[in-house]
Amino acid sequence: MAASPAYGEEKGGSSSLGEPEYGHDPASGGIFSSDYKRHDDLKEMLDSNKDSLKLEAMKRIVAMIARGKNASDLFPAVVKNVACKNIEVKKLVYVYLVRYAEEQQDLALLSISTFQRGLKDPNQLIRASALRVLSSIRVPIIVPIMMLAIKEAASDMSPYVRKTAAHAIPKLYSLDSDQKDQLIEVIEKLLADKTTLVAGSVVMAFEEVCPERIDLIHKNYRKLCNLLIDVEEWGQVVIINMLTRYARTQFLSPNQNESLLEENTEKAFYGSEEEDGKDAKAEAAMLAKCKPYVMDPDHRLLLRNTKPLLQSRNAAVVMAVAQLYFHLAPKAEVGVIAKALVRLLRSHSEVQYVVLQNVATMSIKRRGMFEPYLKSFYIRSTDPTQIKILKLEVLTNLANETNISTILREFQTYIRSMDKDFVAATIQAIGRCATNIGKVRDTCLNGLVQLLSNRDELVVAESVVVIKKLLQMQPAQHSEIIKHMAKLTDNIQVPMARASILWLIGEYCEHVPKIAPDVLRKMAKSFTNEEDIVKLQVINLAAKLYLTNSKQSKLLTQYVLNLAKYDQNYDIRDRARFIRQLIVPTEKSGALNKYAKKLFLAQKPAPILESSFKDRDHFQLGSLSHLLNAKAVGYQELPDWPDEAPDPSVRNVEVPEWTKCTSREKRKEKVEKPFYSDSEGESGPTESADSTPWEGRGVLPAKTLPQPPELASPHSPSEEEEEEEREKKAKKKAPQGRKGRAETSSEEASTSESSSSGSDSGSEAEAKQRKVMRAGMGGCTGIPVPPIELPISTPCSPPAARPAPRRFPCLIWMTVSGCLKYANCCGGALSSPCCLLVQLLSPAFSAVKTYELLHRMAGEGLAVEYCFSRRPFPGDPHMVAVQIQISNNTDTEVKNLRVNEPKPLSGMRIQEFPEIEHLAPGDTASVVMGIDFCDSTQAANFQLCTHTRQFYVSIQPPVGELMAPVFMSENEFKKEQGKLMGMSEITEKLMLSEKCQSDHTIVQQLTSAANVGRVPCGASNEYRFAAKTVTSGSLVLITLERREGSTAQLTINSEKMVIGTMLVKDIIQALAQ
Question: Where are stretches of biased composition, namely Basic and acidic residues (predicted)?
């Protein structure tokens, strides 16, 4: 009696009714009956507020799926948890959704916004899982969303997410093939990826979407060859198969001269001696015209880089390399794959089957490379039948006059096997050996005749069939064998064997004139009980005997034809009528009667016993089509070798001239350049971490700073000699720079670095430096930078003199006796203009944007605004300087203004401003604090406190404020841009607004969006800017190219792909306004 549902739920008992399901305890494996409460416990756990219960439920559900159970009815309960904050639960939910999203498309579409949010998740596994689920929903309406998600994922900083994007491309292509052009752009971008994790996946996408676009591979060919050894095994197989087809289209055949010789040899074998003499001169002339073969270096690169993979533990990789060598390598080098393939014969039977199929094909053309491993193909009693038959095939292909005796002894052993199919295959193999090797033909024939007395009827039948084929080669010498076989007609019952004996007797009836009529007599008696194939041969035997020995067989022939006339099979009836009209002369019979003998007794060529694998090599080895010997769906034909080699320069990756240097210069740089380079002429990515705030952070190279006479070196070299002296002084200056930094503050270190650098002195050098500086400041030519006296107001200045502006001037940094100082640190106006030299470092605009930190209503009369002054923070060059303006709009004095308990995120640092002891009513104070945002746009949170209140505030930087300008030459810009290609490059097209049509406006708008420096450019339609991220010092290179009309193309090169992506959006927004 079945237990009640309640009892089954409480006790966890089993029932004989319904489908067994997973029990309450995952470890117990208990079952309970299926009813309307099925999976209720899992649904309750999924609806729980506790993450531990949800995680346990998801583990049980995934375990059910792994065991093959149907969990689709849980889809609504599971999909609700896709927004769960617990990472582990979310991962398992995505695993479930990938499995059932295609079946439950309507419910999955309801959560599509959640999947889109998952694409922005900080966890790379969640982003990848969200994209995987999104691509599993097979609904055409979400194709644009999928395309956008794939494009974004293709630029993701995580290689795992980019790999998932490559996997999603074939799914989207199968859903909507109209997206092919856009998908090809994504594939082209991912093919340039230098990560081994992505390579195999994107090549698979290439094979699925656009295998004909061979031009996409040219530039990435060498990179794929070099990455191959480190790619995952699945990717190695895909890449090797693709490169095999690529090489067949791009390189010449390494065996082209040998193939000509082989063809000539075959012609000589089948031709006569006279023909050989006539063609000898023509062949010699043809070979003389052939150019000596020189292998392409890229062809050699492919062979060299794939050879180590023959030692892979993965059988598919070894098989892929083996087929590559078979199809591409010179004949003398193919032999290296034999040992690796023989090693695979120790694997599972499934692997052995595939490998032996390919070995059987290879051994027909390249017999020599497997001969040393002959014993590895000997058959074991434990081998499955299919493996035995394939090994027989290989042994037969390898048989020659040297090893035939050994192979025949093996065959004798195999004939005693209990596996009848294997025995039949062995007998056929003996027949093939006898056909191919003339000296053992008689031996094989005698052995097969002995098998005719075997007790096993199948063995005898197969022997008869093989003997029949062998006798056709020399029938006159083997009449005794024919007589012996005629006696077997009473015992052999296998139709094919009986038909073969009758055909032999009829074909060579002149050699056995006494036996043939008697055999016909016996067969006429049993004619009605024979199989159709035997009946047809009886009719043929009767016709041949009627034409050669009509006296003895005329009546028998008429009797057999009469029986056949009324047979149930129409083929036999038709054959009987046709033969009667052909051989029996009547008034109605036509002219064919005269040619009856020629028709029936014509000389027939001996059959050629060939391997069934002879013509399989036109399929690519290792493919499903080769295994089936039929073209499978999706199979791509192996191209023929080209007659002339295509242009090899298409695979050259262009390297700019300025990146090339001689080996002597490289050695010199390695020897003389210290580990921490403090040389004054270096800017850009070669700057060391120990350099000064201006120079090390890429704000301004030291050599471009004009110096007052007292700071200039008295013996500074001229500009022409500077390059030669720089390397000589590098060693001396490095310890001095480090010593100075150890003893002084960061401000003093900056000046020490500047004063010790070999910058130019004199009016001519200063003029040149000012010219460079103006170029770097956004093209503000004609603006002199004289020494000026800067008045600085105190925090307690009267409100009438200093109204609180919405936009306030940029801070101006000064070099005073080599030290950088804030203006408000001086306490008043600086009175010695001869000591001042002001160098503007910001782009050419007069005001910066301010942001509200604390509204006067929320601050109870205290209003706080802040701006990013775009100046180096003196306390720490890795911090962004933030100027804060505090206004007291109350009637009372505010005391003890300070920052309290900053709570930055992990990695962030905040340098508080000095405490403001008192702020009178109506007064405004301006202070500076430093924040290290870690190259992130996440907000820095802290408390702004007074003597009575605390205000929670946060500062969130625009991405353009996370960097400092770098000034470099055009050649330096191009050199660094060449290093940041592929995944580090983001390109977008945009429409310039009507306001942004002049050069000045474009530069102003772009520099307002990002703190970057202008780079000189020779092209009139291009604008170049460079900057470094403040924290890590990563280069950010911006190129804006104007096109026809108002269109333009924006390119950003940076290792920080997230910063690059966000910066593109901000710049486009600034230029489109």
Answer: 664-675
Residue 395 one-letter amino acid: L
Alpha helix ranges (H) inside 835-875? none
The DSSP secondary structure of 884-930, one letter per residue, reads: EEEEE-SSS-EEEEEEE---PPTT-EEEPPPPEEEE-TT-EEEEEEE
How far is Cα 331 from Cα 338, in angstroms, rounded to an integer? 13
- What's the Cα-to-Cα distance from 534 to each of 97, 449, 496, 529, 552, rounded to whole Å? 63, 22, 8, 10, 22
In a 3-state reduction of DSSP, which class is residue 195?
A: coil
**Full-prediction pTM beyond 0.90?**
no
The percent of residues above 90 in pLDDT, for the chain, comes to 25
Residue 546 burial (CB < 10 Å; 0-12/13-18/19+)? buried
Q: Note whether 498 and 489 are within 8 A (CB).
A: yes
Q: What would the two tokens of residue 559 be?
A: 């009797």
CA distance 1073 to 1069: 6
> Which of 598, 593, 574, 573 is closest to 583 using CA atoms?
593
- Higher per-residue pLDDT: 591 or 386: 386
Q: Taking the chain, what is the end-to-end CA distance rounded to the nearest angstrom?
A: 79
Let me know: does 74 contact 60? Beta carbons within 8 Å: no
**Structural Rg of the chain based on CA atoms:** 44
What gap in Å lies between CA 773 and CA 789, rounded to an integer? 21
Q: What is the SS3 assignment for 1029?
A: strand
The DSSP output letter for 957 is: -
| DSSP code, position 491 | T
β partners of residue 864: 854, 886
Q: In sequence order, what are the residues at sequence separation of 6 or more whose Cβ sits closer than 8 angstroms to the Cβ of residue 34?
A: 17, 18, 19, 21
Tell me, what DSSP letter sits at residue 492?
-
Q: How far is CA 479 from CA 467, 485, 546, in A?
A: 12, 10, 21
Concatenated DSSP letters of 315-377: HHHHHHHHHHHHHHS-GGGTTHHHHHHHHHTTS-HHHHHHHHHHHHHHHHH-GGGTGGGGGGG
- Runs of H (alpha helix) within 383-514: 385-398, 404-415, 420-436, 441-451, 457-471, 479-486, 495-507
Asked if 72 and 100 touch (Cβ cutoff 8 Å), the reply is yes
Q: Is 399 helix (H, G, I), strand (E, B) or coil?
A: coil
- Report the half-sphere exposure of 62 (CA within 13 A, side-chain side): 17
Q: Which residues pair with 14 in a beta bridge?
A: none
CA pair distance 210, 167, nearest whole angstrom: 14
Region of residue 714 (phi > 0: left; psi between -120 and 50: alpha; otherwise: beta)? alpha
Per-residue model confidence as pLDDT tens digits over 86-96: 888 888 888 88
pLDDT-derived band at 278 (thresholds 50, 70, 90) equals low
Joined together, the tokens standing for residue 413 give 């052993």
Q: Tell me: pLDDT of 38 over 50.
A: yes
Amino acid (one-letter) located at 825: C
Determine the Cα–Cα distance for residues 224 and 242; give it in Å rounded to an integer. 11
The pLDDT of residue 258 is 63
Distance of alpha carbon 554 from alpha carbon 576, whole angstroms: 15
Task: Look up residue 186 and give its two tokens.
Answer: 């994504």
Contact between 125 and 91 under an 8 Å Cβ cutoff? The reply is yes
What are the two backbone dihedrals, phi and then psi, of residue 917, each rounded to the nearest 5 degrees? -70, -40
CA pseudo-torsion sign 740, 745, 749, 755: negative
Residues 1068, 65: Cα–Cα separation, whole Å: 47
Q: 1041 by DSSP, 3-state: which?
A: strand
Cβ pair 910, 930 in contact under 8 A: yes
Tokens for 1002, please give them: 């474009």
Please tell me the number of Cα atoms within 13 Å of 93 on its side-chain side: 27
Residue 774 contacts residue 786 (beta carbons within 8 Å): no
Q: How many CB atoms lie within 10 A of CB 824?
A: 16
Q: Are 202 and 184 in contact (CB under 8 A)?
A: no
Binned at pLDDT 50, 70 and 90, residue 257 comes out as low
